[in-house]
Amino acid sequence: MLEFNATFFVAMFSFIIFMMIMNSILYKPLARIQKERAEIIQKEKDAAKLTEEKTENLKQQQQANIEKSRLIAKDNFNKKVSEYKERKETILSTARDLAKKDLAIANAELEGDEREAKLLLKAQLNDLASAVASKVLGYETKVEN
Fold first, then answer.
1. d(C-alpha 26, C-alpha 125), whole Å
2. CA–CA dist 91, 84 (Å, integer)
């Protein structure tokens, strides 16, 4: 059986003192370190969450900027295309006008050449008709008009 004598109380007293010393030397610092680590981890989690939110905001801003830039670029492209179409139309219309003028000049020249050729042929027609008639009839004749 268990006897309660002075050694028991001394052992119990020394155990309690030992526990107090261990508590102040070992357990309290470990608990403090664990608490500090938990606080650091929580701060890091909060910082990571904040950074993640900032990153998400930056991504959204970037997407918005990309979309805005895309719209601006599309608008600029459409403006340039319409400008070039207008320039093309003006160039084509001036080219058509020049071609019409050149064609009119060429037609006028051709008409002048045609009149000249007709006059020249008219002058030579009488001689040619006389030559053909004299060959066919066998004697020389003069054809007029």
1. 140
2. 10
